[in-house]
Write a structure and sequence with these properties.
With 148 residues, the chain is an all-beta fold. 0% of the residues lie in helices and 62% in strands. Strand 4 and strand 5 form a beta hairpin.
Length: 148
């Protein structure tokens, strides 16, 4: 079966279909008018669209993404599955993305991305860690070098 995903985007104040920068250093909505509050993804199932995933977004007053909740469609209802929280430094640069799973009524750590920047504010490193046995275990890191 060929899987096709279609997203339905419900915007806060407009129907324009663009919300935020994808750069890990940003995570800030371009404008208050373009903030995505909710996104629903569906897949084509033979002859009909079927719900697949719903994402709910929360922002700070200055339009920085601080939380995303993901829910998966299970039979006839949305089941809470994942939470992503975003932390920024004083300059507004993303320094941490934390992913947690919803298990037995509570959030449980899963994955953490930590971002570091050079003196000019350019992304320098991304460290990815997994939560295992009540501690963070290094998984991998990406190092970025800017063209001089």
């Amino acid at each position: 079966m060929r899987r096709i995903i279609v997203s339905f985007v419900f915007l806060a104040m407009t129907s324009v279909l663009f919300a935020q920068k994808s750069s890990p250093a940003g995570k800030k909505a371009e404008s208050e008018d373009f903030i995505i509050k909710e996104k629903v993804e569906q897949e084509w199932n033979e002859d009909t669209w079927a719900n697949y995933k719903k994402s709910i977004y929360k922002y700070t007053q200055d339009n920085r993404l601080v939380e995303k909740i993901e829910k998966l469609w299970v039979k006839t209802t949305w089941a809470t599955s994942y939470r992503y929280t975003y932390t920024y430094d004083k300059d507004g640069k993303l320094i941490e993305e934390l992913m947690q799973d919803w298990l037995q009524g509570e959030w449980v750590n899963n994955t953490k991305h930590t971002f570091t920047y050079d003196k000019s504010g350019e992304l320098e490193e991304e460290l990815v860690q997994l939560w295992e046995e009540d501690k963070w275990i290094n998984q991998y890191k990406n190092t970025y070098t800017k063209k001089k």
